[in-house]
Amino acid sequence: MTQKLGRHGIPVRTARNAALAALAADLPSPILADVTGMHRHTALRWVAYARRDWAEYLSARAQDKPGDVVPAVD
């Protein structure tokens, strides 16, 4: 399925990661592991990523000069 969608220019990995991040933000890691079939340690990392404290990033962005160009993240 991944190859078929890729041939049509549909980025599967990006959509998968976004869906996992959304699930991880709403579910505790043991349930995320059970629902997705992933290892419990992997689920724990996804939950930690989804609930990351973005204060450091926002602080750095606030210090940017108005004319600075920030590269896009894929």
**Outline:** flat
How many strands, which pairing sense, and closed or not: the largest β-sheet? Answer: none
Tell me the helix content: 55-70%
How far apart, in Å, are the first and last alpha carbons? 22 Å
In terms of per-residue confidence, which ranges show pLDDT below 50 for 5 or more consecutive residues? Answer: none
Q: What is the N-to-C order of secondary-structure elements (H for helix, E for strand)?
A: HHHHH
DSSP strand content: under 5%
Radius of gyration: 16 Å
> How many beta strands in the DSSP annotation?
0
Note down, in words, how this protein is organized.
This protein is mainly α and 74 residues long. The protein has one domain. It is 66% helix and 0% strand. The longest helix is centred in the N-terminal third of the chain and has 15 residues, at 12-26. The chain is flat. The model has no long low-confidence stretch (mean pLDDT 84).
Name the features.
74 residues, mainly alpha
Protein topology:
Layout: H1 2-7, H2 12-26, H3 29-36, H4 40-50, H5 55-63
Helix pairs in contact: 2-4, 3-4
Outline of the structure:
The protein is mainly α and 74 residues long. It has 5 helices and no strands.
